[in-house]
Amino acid sequence: MLQGFAQATEAVKRARRALLVAPENPTPDAVAAVSAALAYLQAHGHVAEALVPNVQPDKLPHYLPHRDKLQPKIGGTRDFRISVDLNRAPIHELSYDVKDGRLHILLTPKNGEWEKKDVDLRPGEDRYDLIVAFGCPDRAELAKCFRENSDFVYRIPVVNVDHDAKNEHWAPINLVDLTASSVTEVLFGWLADWSEHKIDEQMATALLSGMIANTQSFRTPRVTPQTLERAAKLVAMGADREAVVHHLWRTRPVNTLKLWGRALSRLEQDEDRGLVWTTLSRQDIVDSGATEARLDEMVQELIAYAPGAKIACVLVEHDPAATRVAVFAQPPHQADAYGKTLGLDGTKQRASGAISKPLLEAKDHVVKTLRQQLK
Question: Least packed by Cβ within 10 Å: which of 220, 322, 327, 329?
Answer without folding.
Answer: 322
